[in-house]
Amino acid sequence: MRMNRLSSTMLLSLLCAAVQTGCMGVSGSALNPSFPLVRHDAKRRTEEMRGTPLPAQRPIVVLGGYFDPGFVAQGVANRLRHVLEMPPEVISITFFANGTFDECRAQVLREVEQAFPTNDPNWTREVDVVAISMGGVVARHAARDLGDGSRRLNIARLFTISTPHTGANLASLPTFDRRQLAMREDSDFMAELNEDSTSRDFPIYAYVRLDDAIVGVENAAPPGVVPWWVPNEPFQFAHLSAAEDPRILADIARRLRDESPIALSPPTPPPGVFQGDEAPPASPVPRRSRNEMADDV
């Protein structure tokens, strides 16, 4: 009960701060040259994919965000199921009751093993991960080599939607929640995550909506990576509605179906975030899966 009261209080604080800082968009005039897709075209493409479902390359794990009790992650999982042939299976995992990122990591490893068993003591089954907000941080933490011999999440590709890869702007609000404290831009956890190469030794495809004041557009990709951005929809919360954005989900679905993506590489830097030479090079670098590399041995 105490955790639920704290979570409710923090959610209200975050929503109030989000409104005050302007993350509710009133227009969507900017068009991303590297992601030239508007809402009605995204819906049309999604309907076409639903009419011709294709198989995914591997199982898919959808990870929920900070305050998601399961509805958002399950909604994304259902949308993906509609455009994919089964199997492989799509599962969703949420972290509403977890108090730390270590607890979140343990839950991911446990539920992935239950859904996709393997005898490998070091890795879970290889999966593609679609992560919403904090879920992207959980995914990277679950993939880390912590040096204690614990099993790691075997990520082939990580797709993140509004994830605070370098911290969240509003995580600086007062709190006792250890996950929120960890997501502060200057936290030891965030520094360790981004200094640890094992948290990102797989392609990361980062997406964000403009005007995201909760996370910050500048924080929505790992260091050295530019996110693919789309303008916010009129009168929607940029962050809270991002996981339902048909443009983002259409591009992720095409990649999961092994079709030509809509978003182009390299991503165009978000307006006003990177200036001139500050913009890092940022297209995800494809790599062979660990299973493919094992075949060479």
Please tell me about this protein's structure.
It is a single chain. The chain has helices spanning 2-20, 39-51, 71-83, 101-115, 134-143, 178-182, 188-195, 246-256, 290-295; strands at 24-25, 54-55, 60-63, 84-85, 90-93, 127-132, 155-161, 204-209, 228-230, 236-237. The protein is of the alpha/beta class and 297 residues long. The strands form three sheets. The protein has a six-stranded parallel β-sheet with strand order 5-3-6-7-8-9, sandwiched between helices. The chain has a two-stranded antiparallel ribbon with strand order 1-10. Helix 5 (134-143) links the parallel strand 6 (127-132) and strand 7 (155-161). Helix 2 packs parallel to helix 8 and helix 4 packs across helix 5. The longest helix is centred in the N-terminal third of the chain and has 19 residues, at 2-20. It is globular and about 45 Å long. Residues 1-13, 15-23 and 291-297 have low confidence and may be disordered.
Structural class: alpha/beta
Gyration radius, rounded? 18 Å
Overall helicity: 25-40%
Low-confidence stretches: 1-13, 15-23, 291-297
Summed over residues and divided by their number, the pLDDT gives a mean of 88
Number of helices: 9
Strand content: 5-15%
**Main β-sheet: number of strands, strand sense, barrel status?**
6 strands, parallel
Q: Order of SSEs, N→C?
A: HEHEEHEEHEHEHHEEEHH
Shape: globular
Total number of β-strand segments? Answer: 10
**Which strand order do you get reading across the main beta sheet?**
5-3-6-7-8-9
Termini Cα gap: 52 Å
